[in-house]
Design a protein that fits this description.
Blueprint: H1 2-20, E1 26-30, H2 36-44, E2 49-52, H3 55-64, E3 71-74, H4 83-89, E4 92-96, H5 99-108, E5 116-122, H6 138-146, E6 151-158, H7 170-186, E7 192-194, H8 201-206, E8 211-214, H9 216-219
Parallel strand pairs: 1-2, 1-8, 2-3, 3-4, 4-5, 5-6, 6-7
């Protein structure tokens, strides 16, 4: 069932990219709240990259799925006191939004691991309920990341205001892409713009997303909390 869902989503991403004249984005399967069995089903179908919100949940899941060559992305807010565990486990952290976190992740990334791939999370719509740096803070934060040899600056991540109509998110995606272009001009390692989810990925792709984060369309509705 999940293999078919993966096939369908990949086809839809390809179609959305073709319709907008954009390159096909990379798929990040959002596996937060899903058990290891569900992740394994998608891994068996060829999906490699998975996104998790919580460090402790990811640690347990990654241990159960060790040896499969999976790529783990942290897409939830990271507290500085979890930086040691995050730096040890994840291949990507998409939610870096402050200098203190940059320093902590760099300090705890082991020398025998590849540099930790980092995205700057931008609070593009200035929502008080969301994490992320202000757009104007991106250049300084990018310089701080680029100065750390144990980190690799790869780009930006954004979660726009969830308007009921995905078209109303287009301007936020467009503004983020402008930030991305400016960032890429000054940092040669920048190649990733993570934006778009199950309900708005087509708009995000049209506005230049290179990675989309899909959960519900792959796994179904999240399990209810007991």
């Amino acid at each position: 069932m999940r293999a078919r869902a993966l096939e369908d989503i990949l086809l839809q991403l390809n179609n959305a990219a073709a319709a907008s004249g954009r390159p096909e984005p990379r798929l990040l399967a959002v596996s937060k709240t899903q058990d290891a069995t569900a992740v394994a089903e998608l891994a068996d179908a060829g999906q490699r990259a998975f996104g998790e919100n919580y460090v402790q949940e990811a640690i347990a899941k990654a241990a159960e799925l060790a040896g499969r060559g999976l790529e783990w992305h942290l897409i939830g807010h990271l507290q500085s006191n979890k930086a040691r565990e995050a730096a040890a486990l994840f291949d990507w952290v998409q939610t870096v939004d402050r200098p203190k976190l940059v320093e902590a992740l760099a300090r705890h990334r082991a020398d025998d691991r590849p540099p930790l791939n980092v995205l700057i999370q931008v609070n593009i719509d200035d929502e008080s309920s969301k994490h992320g740096c202000q757009p104007g803070d991106v250049p300084a934060l990018a310089r701080a990341i680029a100065a750390q040899p144990r980190l690799c600056l790869r780009g930006l991540m954004v979660i726009p205001t969830p308007h009921p109509d995905p078209e109303q998110r287009r301007d936020a995606f467009r503004r983020t892409h402008a930030l991305f272009d400016a960032l890429r001009a000054g940092h040669p390692t920048v190649d990733t713009l993570s934006m778009g989810m199950s309900d708005d990925y087509a708009v995000a792709i049209a506005e230049g997303a290179t990675m989309v984060r899909i959960g519900t369309a792959l796994f179904g509705a999240r399990p209810a909390k007991g």
